[in-house]
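User: Can you write out an input/output pair for a complex, sequences first and structure second?

Assistant: Here is one pair. Inputs:
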Amino acid sequence: MSDPAAIAIRDLRVTLAPPASRDLLGPLSFDVAAGECLAIVGESGAGKSLATLALLGLLPPGLRASGSLRVGGADVEPGSRAHAALRGRAIAWVPQDALAALHPLRRIRAQLFETLRGAGVARDGLHAEASRLFDRVGLPDADALLSRHPHELSGGQRQRACIALALASRPRVLLADEPTSALDPRVARGIADLLDALRRDMGLAVLLVSHDLPLVAALAQRVLVLHRGRCVETGATARVFSAPAELYTRELLEAERLPSATAAARGDVLLSARELAVRYPRAPRDALAPVSLDLHRGECLAVVGESGSGKSTLARALLRLLRTPARGRITLDGVEIGALGARALRPLRRRIGVVFQDPFASLDPRMSAAAIVAEPLRIHAVGERASHRERAMQLLRAVDLDADAIDRYPHQFSGGQCQRIAIARALATDPELLVCDEAVSALDARNRAAILRLLARLKRERGVAMLFITHDLDAARALADRIVVMRDGAIVESGIAADVLSSPKHAYTRELLAARPAALAVPA
Amino acid sequence: MRTTLRRLPRSAKACLGVLAALALCALCGPWLSPYTPEHPDWNALSAAPSFAHRHWLGTDAIGRDTFVRALYGLRLSLLLGVGATAIALIAGMAYGATAGYAGGRTERWMMRGLDVVSALPFLLIVILLLTLFERSLPLLLAAIGGYVWIDLARVMRAEAARLRELPFVLAARAAGATGWQVLRWHVVPNLLGLALVYASLLAAQAILVESFLGFLGLSIDQPSAGLGTLLEEGTQELDSAPWTLLVPAVLLVTTLACFQQLGDALRDGLDVRTAPQAADARDEVAPAPIEAAPVAGP
């Protein structure tokens, strides 16, 4: 071990192949020592994926990597045959989407054994080695899990299996590409802890690629900030995060600071549900156990839970958007809407606006921004058709979009802009209630903070009540007056937001809170 | 639409060009010749292609001009292909979109109904229709359209069922849109791209079905015959006048290949996911746990 760095990169560039010959990434130079974790951070589009692909030697045709790569004391040229020989051996990869990364039709055993055989494990030693690896990644019941197909594992088990696959070839470098961003916070915490343990105990060099700054702060000793393909700043994580030298780094960190909720004037009950329950056809249990809640005028009620907790089902049941009828009663402003026919319900719908998670899928790709925003007006025949355009322009300005965006189509906007258009549409009929179903979950940190500020402003200025469905406790903290915590279709805890978040009563809430990496102390 | 046209792959543009040229020939070509499709030229029976007697592509056994007859045949085949496709497009989209968007029991019954229709022996029914009623263009159009719409309806149903669960459709429903409004504003416009791809494949199929019926002698032959009828006549004169088979065969193959290739090229070209993004729409969705929408019903 004369060479301290497990992997050393010098002047790594990714260029478009001639004739364009444009630099897309780099030059990047960095070392990662054995037992060290370096994080590459940046927003989407910063070039993180490109860096990952270049390091794996898997750039798509048309792109070329240059520079030098030194792994375990041997120099290789990026993209060369020698580089390919390192992939899956000295350099192993942990994917973001484990379900997509595993072969769907083969049992975990076959996939793991294949890799182990490739790594030179003798046939009779395969089982013992597989059990050892599974033990290492925190999957003690190896025999049962090995005989399953990928879809029969939980998200966390799948990600652990992927890490076991990566470890099978005894790599020096682990390239973890957003390893936790597809997972629920509690599961993500487990994976993060596992990666940290592997680094410490096995002396692996971990290259973490992520946009999740709190995760990076918890895992990485050093950090490299990437912006538009260039390295903006690099250094010890603690130093970069506490005293960023560059303006861009400061902006990134700034986005972590979310607005804090301001108490709203609380009016009478606007929406209430009593014993609301949903069971999908042929499902063994209720997706939504009987649930009761009240939403007052002007307040924001956050419904928090992991995936599968029934929070989206609750939102859709309240909106009467489910094809399966819900049991129980729903009243909007004193009017029973739970059993109302579709025709009678329609006029009441203008009093509720909805914003969904995926900003691109929320907008009809064949409609202009003007048509999208004015659609509720068209549905309810509000005013003259000619006035809709003017109104759409007002609404776009209200969500901080330029009025000249009005004739553009969804694919011409970014994710954050699309979500603003979706909010503008939800506000078109001046609703008293805004239902946001994971409205900031698909956005990156800067957009998330901006949309949360926008929602907070709408709540304050328009006095609109909000039902804010989220798995993101920080977002809930930023907006909510009251919080409801859901698990397995039932409410486990509810109360004033500050109380629930500072002194949770239920064990599950405590677990959820503990799972988050500590919030960053953002320098003022 | 203009941008869509510009974005089409080169092969699609080439196919459109060839098809347009074929259609132009079918429409205007016969004017160039002094002959008509049905009147025999007794001075030139089974004449070989030649400029001397102005039968550029020869004549058949009773002296009818191959050039003119083939172009009239192409005219009929194209007309039937496009007309039957139009019928299939309207019927298939309406039926499929309604079934797919409605979902639940309506969808199930509508699709079972479609299964019944597609299980009927098509050829038998067409023969019955053509023998019971007078053979006419509208009847043939209806028969062929009634055959090819079934596949389109199935594809449209599947796509509409996918659209039904997308957030922008949910948002419209949440805003109070009626089923009819959602169909008109969101479902049908978003089906159009896929429908166009299928339409060009259907056109090929419709033309093939027409030539098949013609070959069996079931197509219309007044005032002029379709390409299939010409092929059938051509096979009988293979020894004496092979050009009567070759000319319609080349036209048929070219037309079919163009429609087929157009369909494949359109499928690649109209895919929105491959469309370039605007320069200032840089930031994309950060990866996040996308929760599966609750699926109700099968």
